Amino acid sequence: MILKTYARLWVPDLDATLPLLEAIVGRPADLRFSFETVELAAIGDFLVIAGPPEALAKHREATGPVVVSDLAELEATVVAGGAEIVGPVAQSATGSFLYARHPDGSLVEYVQWKPELVARIIG
């Protein structure tokens, strides 16, 4: 069910951050896009999130993203395990996502990528 997970890296400036990460990972970012008032780039196992402090604060509580093969199946599994879906499934540049609050209080972002992203990034 889980295809990939990312560690979030919070930065003020995406362009200033990417060159070092690209050197460490050995390739350019797999994805780069905007969402609401932040910019994001996925590179290796990092999801770099850039923006002003107030915009970053809105997203800091969540862990993830956790990329899954089937968001509907994931939703059924976490709800059966006692999690609460804190918002309906929504769309983004990469596919569909939802946020689930697990019974322990943790908040996790789950994403189902568009098939072309799965093929290109995961294989």
SSE string, helix = H, strand = E?
EEHEEEHEHEEEEH
- Which architecture does the CATH hierarchy give at level 2? Roll
- Cα shape: globular
What is the CATH top level name?
A: Alpha Beta
- How many discrete structural domains? 1
Topology, number of strands = 10
What integer value in Å does the Rg equal?
A: 15 Å
Mean pLDDT: 95
- Derived from helix and strand composition plus strand pairing, the structural class reads alpha+beta
Under CATH, the topology can be stated as 2,3-Dihydroxybiphenyl 1,2-Dioxygenase, domain 1
Distance between the termini: 15 Å
* Main sheet attributes: strand count, strand direction, barrel closure: 6 strands, mixed
Helical percentage: 25-40%
Features of this protein?
2,3-Dihydroxybiphenyl 1,2-Dioxygenase, domain 1, 123 residues, globular, alpha+beta
Word description of this protein:
This protein has one domain: 2,3-Dihydroxybiphenyl 1,2-Dioxygenase, domain 1 (Roll). Helices cover 28% and strands 41% of the residues. It has helices spanning 14-25, 53-57, 71-80, 115-122; strands at residues 2-5, 7-11, 31-35, 38-43, 46-50, 63-68, 84-85, 90-92, 95-101, 107-113. Strands 1, 6, 7, 8, 9 and 10 form a 6-stranded mixed β-sheet that branches. A 4-stranded mixed β-sheet has the order 2-5-4-3, covered by helices on one side. The two termini are 15 Å apart.
